[in-house]
Inverse folding.
């Protein structure tokens, strides 16, 4: 069963095409990763999926309900964990979850039960009567999640839920996502932490300039660039390395710099390692270390978009 | 609709959870009305200091001074003529009363033309003493007429008048103008606080957008219209509580006669409350931050309250300003209350109520249109 079905989705802000004719289908039970640099169109897509902004063209349905025509039915099935923590500092943890859950029609003892269930799920039951102003960043993030799940949505959209928190809280959240998924929730997950996406997502879309430029499982995405060899060269003086010169070498697709490390991605079929080393030696750049790697999602992303995820 | 109530209750909970909320929305408006009413009633009951120059120094002139002294509203000081200007300008007396030379002679011969009163505070101050003297002189002149120039007869009638042998039925009339003034000015101040309070409550929308809770609410099965309705409900409840409390303070605590029934005052103020809520939403619909809402509010609320007679009677204003005030809902509200105080029935001021509600409707419609136009949630996630 398709939990999310997007067809021909287009959204414009004036002359800017934020989402360009996107087609996307998410099956029930998936943890679906949305990857894209800032301004790629992820947020706009999520806003449209949640019925927060209208689209210019196309259709979006959640569990078969059109977000435009059956807005309330569609929204009832969604729980959203926004990137910015959306809670009331002047209400206790319990009151926060209770208020947001009551907007989904929960009342009385069922509401109370679900609120405590959600707080327990994120490990905040003991802090139910505390105010978020006394919470750590991680606890606030967990409360942010509790507010999104108390009404037991079938689809949970999480946007960067682990930004700016300690590793322990991050781990707790990732475990929670997996647990929610095992309980039958479909999750749409966006993150800047590639390793998180690699760890929990069953399928991933890479979005750039409002378009989905690649989609599939981790393995499928990596296979897109299995024709790529990556050589990592550690040098003494990185400022003297010219990206354009390296790109002139036959087979080099992209070059990336990270402190004193130069990453050179080349077409697998072309053996150009000797020429790359020659470039460094001819230009008097001393090599401290050299190694070859298999591609990860970061490489896939860089190869496809020409940008780092955090650009 | 249920969600609108849930949202309204949540806004009330968030607002009154903080002590500052109770202070801003309840205590400050009530306290200010209390202070303004106390201030005006104090001004109204303050005695008048009168410096008297007796240039005649006769039995009748002394009788006049004694008569003025007997009135509790006046405190008499006998002064010299050359002290008059100095004492009036230095505020040691509110006005001076100069009994001219030959006063007694003129009274007895029915020739008295005028008694001079000097003040720099205008008719507001001199009116009391002027009225009192007019009454006294009229009585004295009537006695003079009756005695037909015969001093003996005059003395006889006058001593009878003085000793109350003449059957005079004294009925003290309540000074309605003072009481109504106190109510009008207190309501004027309150009207300003209703506007400030409603704008502050409406600005919670901006705060909710800033802390993202607005978007979380709108991602639930709640439309932005229902959210706005929730804000209006909460705002209305706050305004209603303010109105009830202020009317109770005015009528029960300060025991001021409002000169109109409780329910009529309620109806007018509730109508104005709707205008204020609409006005608050209007400001919010044009603003991106709470400081912008507050700045716009300050820029509009105080000057418009001044123009529409919230702080002083509108009759003090120049003609052109009074005409401009017709475009302000506060003017129609205060005028409606004034008419009800004058004994008009609620049906007689239906035109005023229609105008006030039209302001509310216009504000709501522009705000709704603008909210829709500026619907921008791209920063939510």
């Amino acid at each position: 069963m398709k939990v999310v079905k997007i067809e021909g989705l287009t959204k414009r802000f004036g002359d800017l095409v934020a989402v360009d004719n996107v087609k996307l289908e998410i099956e029930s039970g998936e943890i679906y990763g949305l990857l894209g640099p800032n301004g790629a169109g992820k947020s706009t897509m999520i806003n449209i999926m949640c019925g927060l902004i209208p689209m210019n063209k196309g259709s979006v349905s959640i569990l078969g309900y059109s977000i435009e025509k059956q807005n309330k039915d569609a929204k009832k099935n969604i729980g959203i964990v926004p990137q910015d923590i959306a809670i009331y500092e002047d209400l206790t943890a319990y009151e926060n979850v209770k208020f947001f859950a009551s907007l989904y029609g929960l009342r009385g003892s069922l509401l109370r039960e679900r609120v405590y269930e959600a707080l327990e799920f994120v490990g905040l039951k003991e802090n139910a009567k505390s105010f978020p102003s006394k919470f750590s960043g991680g606890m606030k993030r967990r409360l942010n999640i509790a507010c999104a799940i108390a009404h037991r949505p079938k689809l949970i959209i999480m946007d960067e839920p682990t930004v700016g928190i300690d590793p322990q809280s991050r781990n707790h959240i990732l475990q929670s996502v997996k647990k929610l998924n095992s309980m039958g929730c479909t999750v749409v997950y966006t993150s800047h932490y590639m390793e998180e996406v690699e760890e929990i997502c069953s399928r991933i879309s890479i979005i750039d300039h409002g378009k989905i430029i690649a989609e599939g499982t981790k393995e499928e995405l990596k296979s897109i660039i299995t024709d790529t060899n990556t050589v990592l060269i550690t040098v003494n003086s990185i400022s003297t390395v010219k990206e354009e010169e390296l790109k002139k070498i036959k087979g080099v697709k992209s070059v990336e710099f990270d402190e004193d490390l130069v990453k050179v991605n080349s077409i697998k079929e072309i053996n150009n390692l000797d020429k790359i080393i020659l470039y460094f030696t001819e230009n008097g750049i001393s090599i401290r270390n050299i190694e070859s790697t298999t591609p990860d999602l970061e490489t896939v992303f860089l190869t496809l978009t020409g940008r780092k995820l955090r650009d | 609709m249920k969600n609108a109530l849930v949202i309204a209750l949540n806004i009330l909970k968030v607002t009154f959870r903080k002590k500052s909320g109770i202070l801003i929305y309840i205590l400050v408006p009530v306290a200010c009305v209390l202070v303004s009413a106390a201030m005006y009633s104090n001004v109204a009951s303050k005695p008048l200091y009168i410096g008297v120059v007796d240039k005649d120094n006769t039995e009748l002139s002394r009788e006049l001074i004694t008569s003025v002294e007997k009135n509790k509203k006046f405190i008499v000081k006998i002064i010299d003529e050359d002290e008059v200007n100095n004492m009036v300008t230095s505020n040691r007396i509110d006005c001076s009363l100069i009994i001219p030379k030959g006063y007694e002679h003129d009274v007895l011969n029915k020739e008295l033309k005028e008694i001079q009163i000097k003040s720099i505070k205008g008719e507001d101050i001199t009116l009391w003493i002027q009225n009192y003297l007019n009454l006294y002189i009229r009585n004295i002149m009537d006695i003079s007429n009756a005695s037909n120039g015969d001093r003996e007869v005059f003395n006889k009638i006058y001593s009878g008048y003085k000793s109350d042998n003449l059957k005079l039925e004294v009925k003290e009339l309540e000074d309605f103008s003072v009481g109504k003034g106190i109510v009008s000015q207190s309501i004027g101040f309150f009207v300003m606080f209703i506007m400030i309070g409603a704008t502050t409550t409406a600005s919670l929308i901006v705060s909710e957008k800033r802390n993202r809770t607005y978007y979380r609410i709108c991602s639930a099965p709640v439309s932005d219209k229902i959210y706005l309705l929730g804000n209006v409900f909460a705002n209305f409840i706050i305004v209603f509580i303010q109105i009830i409390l202020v009317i109770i303070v005015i009528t029960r605590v300060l025991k001021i006669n409002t000169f109109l029934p409780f329910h009529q005052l309620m109806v007018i103020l509730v109508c104005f409350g709707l205008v204020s809520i609409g006005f608050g939403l209007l400001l919010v619909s044009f603003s991106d931050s709470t400081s912008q809402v507050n700045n716009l509010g300050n820029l509009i609320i105080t000057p418009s309250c001044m123009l529409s007679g919230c702080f002083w009677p509108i009759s003090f204003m120049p003609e052109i300003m009074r005409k401009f005030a017709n475009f302000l809902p506060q003017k129609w509200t205060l005028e409606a209350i004034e008419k009800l105080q004058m004994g008009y029935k609620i049906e007689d001021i239906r035109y005023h109520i229609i105008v006030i509600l039209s302001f509310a409707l216009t504000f709501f419609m522009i705000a709704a249109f603008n909210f829709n136009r500026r619907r921008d949630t791209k920063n939510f996630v």
